[in-house]
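Sequence only, no structure available. Ideas?
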Amino acid sequence: MPINSFLYPGAKFTPTYEVANSLRFDIGSTDYLNRTSGTSTNTNAWSLSMWIKRGKLDGGVSQKVFSAGSGSTDRTEIYFYNDKLNIYRNISGSEINIDTSMVFRDLSAWYHTLWVWNGTAITLYVNGASVTLSATNLGTNKINGSSTIHRIGIQHDNSSQNFGGYLAEIVFLDGTTVSDATSFGEFDSDTNIWKPIDVSGLTFGNNGFYLDFENSGSLGADVSGNGNNFTVNNLTSVDQSSDSCTNNFATLNPLNGVVYSSITFSEGNLKAQTTAGKYAPAHSTMGFNTGKWYAEFKATDAGNWTMVGIVSQNSTASGQPLGYFSDSYAYIGGTAAGSGNSLMNNDTNTSYASTYGNGDIISVAVDCDNNKLYFGLNGTWLNSGNPESGATGTGAAFTISSSPTSGFYYFAVGNYSGSQTPDWEANFGSPAFSISSGNSDGNGYGNFEYSVPSGYYALNTKNLAEYG
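Reply:
I predicted one. Tokens follow.
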């Protein structure tokens, strides 16, 4: 089976087993879960399964996903380094590091990883297939050790090198070494995509646990039946995400050419801080060319010449803002008089509706069937717009090209200021900021501040499979 059988954007794939939630960890923070284990069923037999969606390439700085131990010479850690997946142990100064030859560089995809230790050899499966490791003898290690602190999302001393991204369906079996990955997933017969299955019937052992992150009030709850709950640190209900390994939601894309070096991404790539004088916009990981799509964007720090809209082609230079190309469309706002309150397309500005500032939420509705683009401000459609008006296009901000350069449109944010660094927070249906009301699309997907127009949908793989 192919190693790249993951839930990729736009996959024509409808899983039978649903994973409702993941947990979002912010890179550079101290978001983590911890638990001190009890007496192990068998310290030399364990299996650890996790679904992972990365938020950032590591650039040679470790991102610790799972760790066990109490100090620098008493630890075992699973982590990303140079975009490879590693398992490392240091016991009284005796070090062993094992890594993969493959790299994990797709920040839009969910990967399933399964580590199995039988007391003699360590095995790793990724998306259902075993992968080559640099070695197999991990030796004595701290994972599943009795009375040992286990942490998720950070290194052994809770201080740094934390993971950024999303984790789902974390399952640990104490005393069981599975022979392959079929206890946790299967290949879809139609698409050959690796997908999760129900794991509730597995044998968990004394220290075993199953974290499904479905209880927003108790994110560390173990639902295996063991009650091996984890303590939650610096994570709240806002970090519970509906972006999961059975319904992959769009995020902003930090791998988008010139954008990568000029925008700081955080909160699972849902927050973007732009750089003064660097105008290339950040756009969504998923694109669309048919159907009707809805997203919301919060101007956390609006600054001047803040921009939101859609784009087709990548900027090839930092001086090409949103609205620069003929198939790029922007609504500009800002806090200084005369700097906002306009539209931009094909590098030309026209006056438009109201400006926006700090804390305002911009609704963006794209009708690819009728080639119309609408903007709303704090729940009111601008220019008396009606996204449900179809071909009439009542109050549309733009009539968009039916033949975008790349073949697709993407939601996008950016700025056009030489001196300020506006912040944006994107909501494609799984927001990183608090929602006071809560609205979903017609399929029941998404958590939006304002009502989703009838016939418009959140940008995720399930909706793309149906309407994209």
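The chain has two domains: 22-241, 257-467.
Hope that gets you unstuck.
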